Amino acid sequence: MLAIEVIYYCLVVYGVMGLAVALLFLVFGLDKVEEAARGAYLFRLQIIPGLVLLWPLVIYHWRSASRSISEDADAT
């Protein structure tokens, strides 16, 4: 029974972290990663499950987009 509890709590922690990243990304990061998503509020609701499940990739792409934006700003 201990192994099942450990797996369960790991999944709960993963889900909570994913939900936190999803909410932060929807509020602060989506416009930086995808400019076409500005004002698309129903789209934001639809991508929440994917963001929760794939939050490590979301963080990676969010950071990559932030770096490219800062490099473009430095170049001009």
Give a verbal description of the structure.
It is built from four helices and no strands. It is mainly α and about 80 residues long. The chain has one domain. Helix 1 packs parallel to helix 4. The termini are far apart. The mean pLDDT is about 90.
How far is the first residue's CA from the last residue's CA? 60 Å
Q: Average the pLDDT over all residues and give the rounded result.
A: 88
Number of spatially distinct domains: 1
How many distinct beta strands?
0
Order of helices and strands: HHHH
Backbone CA Rg = 16 Å
Topology, element by element:
Layout: H1 2-33, H2 41-46, H3 48-53, H4 55-75
Which structural traits does this protein have?
mainly alpha, 4 helices, elongated
A few lines on this structure:
This protein is mainly α and 76 residues long. 86% of the residues lie in helices and 0% in strands.
